[in-house]
Amino acid sequence: MLVVELKTEESVGKKYAMKQVECIEEKQANKALKEAMDLLKLHHSSICAYKELFVMWDNKISSLFLCLVMQHSGQGDLSSLIKEKRQKSEKITDKVILKFLGQMVDALFYIHKQNIIHRNLKPSNILVTDEASFMLCDFSTEALMTDEMKWKIRVEENSKSWMAPETLSFSFTEKSDIWSLGCILLDMMTCFVLNTQERTSLLQDLRQDTSHLEGVLTLMQNGYNSSLPLFTILFMMLHIQPSMRPTAKALTDLPFIRECLTVAGSSLIKPKKSSLPLDVIDMLLEGGISSVLEFMQAYWDREEAQVKAVEHLASFLGDKNALPCLLTFTELITSAMKTHIDSLKLQIGGCRLLLEILSQALEQDLDVETSLGDNVINSLLETVRKHSENEELLSLVCTLLMMISASEVAAENLRKAGVILDLLMIIRNFLHNEQICLSCCGVLWSLVVSGNLENSVDQASLKSAVCAASAVLQEHLQNGMVAETACSALWALSLQGCLTENEYESTTALLLDALRMNLERPVLVKNACQALASLLRLSDDIVLDMVSQKMEELLSEIKSRFPSSMEIMILVDATLLKLQK
């Protein structure tokens, strides 16, 4: 790529780069030129502006070239920055990551809205300016990227590492850019722990199986603030199936990405409107439930109005006749929470109100499933991801998620929304919290027994869930309620084949400890016995472990304690028979 500096009065000190792309024939050159003309229309602060495009014949080598002249920042590119950090084993700061992600999502949203795809997104095609800002450059066209013969020559193997799985079959969409951005983000996050060869191998492996992300999760956590939900974003971007990846538009709706956009100074983030006087709010809320509905809809963009409305709705909880009406407010409440995601007061108030509404509705056998649509679930997950450090709020939200996941439809929607990764992160950060652990294991159980878990990301996440559920059980062995849900989660995970052979022995020992310490809890006994029976079916070696730990004596004691429980008796007898063979 040739870089020149103009010295004219109009363009003092401006640098431009000219890229020459060899074309096979005139028809291809003209087609590529026609496609590339749209690049001249791009005017965005995070995109290098294109100055001129033309086709040129080089007499010396008798070849036709498409020439693209673009603005050049005069600084280095992102690949140089990453290389420097990798050599020094230094991490790229959270602030830089936030700004980078905000600027890149903003830029992709802009080009995708105009039906333009970058097609060649990689660190060397992202320039770094003086202010540690980032600019997209070096777009490619469909005509050039779908020419198999020239593509094999032009695109180096290392460059292919950043490309989405489907692009290796010459299928490019806006979702391909999202994959590439995920790869770049991953490289930035791991540059202080992975060398270049390890990075390249990881990116190539991810195209076949995204479970490889789990292997670097712990490494990344050691260097990055656990409150940044970067890992969840990565898993979203790096779905092998393009249909499962978010669009740039969908990313801009996520609270964490909106925070990145704010740091980047994106115009996609609109300033908040001035608040209403509180006395006006009080006056408007003097009516009944119907007036609250109208008020929330009229002032949806005013934080104080929504906080006051939620508080006013809570005053109707004691009225049984008002409950069916309150149940219809679930989506409106979560919508307010999503709109004002930064308001901790609204998040806590909204979750407490939802918990009371759903609890009372279930006690009265009211139909709650119709009130738990996608919008409600997605709003709650955004709260989790935005306020991932707030223990009080997470305790409320996780309890809500456990109640919601009892519905098979809701459980499936939670799974599709990527809740498993959120649960694992929450357990890691709040293993000491009994209510959070109980709720998270309850949700895991519901997801495993009712969901479709065929995609690779879910399978990889559930293998990590075994460690999480085991950690909960180990931490809370003496808390019967928490141990009960942890045993049920381990049982469900064992049925799905999520345990590895290396985990059989330790899981068996843990379940036996749970049984010995909680023999007075029939549900825990049943769940633990179910899990142990499942492990027995998986491996004959478990028999020796159980015999060595005097399992027969324990089972005999269980039989004496629960002679009237047919389910437990059948389980115990079957296990005893297996041990005696």
Question: Can you describe this structure?
Answer:
The chain has 581 residues and is of the alpha+beta class. It is built from 30 helices and 6 strands. A 4-stranded antiparallel beta sheet has the order 1-2-4-3, with helices on one face. Strands 5-6 form a two-stranded antiparallel sheet. The model has no long low-confidence stretch (mean pLDDT 84).
User: Which percent band covers the strand fraction?
Assistant: 5-15%
Q: How many beta strands in the DSSP annotation?
A: 6
User: Helix share of residues?
Assistant: 55-70%
CATH topology of one domain, which one? Transferase(Phosphotransferase), domain 1
Architecture per CATH nomenclature, i.e. the level-2 architecture of one domain: Orthogonal Bundle
Order of neighbouring strands in the sheet with most strands: 1-2-4-3
Mean pLDDT: 84
Q: Strand pairing plus helix content: what structural class?
A: alpha+beta
What's the tally of helices? Answer: 30
Kindly provide the radius of gyration, computed on alpha-carbon positions and rounded to a whole number of angstroms.
28 Å
Shape: globular
- CATH C-level name of one domain: Mainly Alpha
CATH superfamily of one domain: Transferase(Phosphotransferase) domain 1
Largest sheet entry: 4 strands, antiparallel
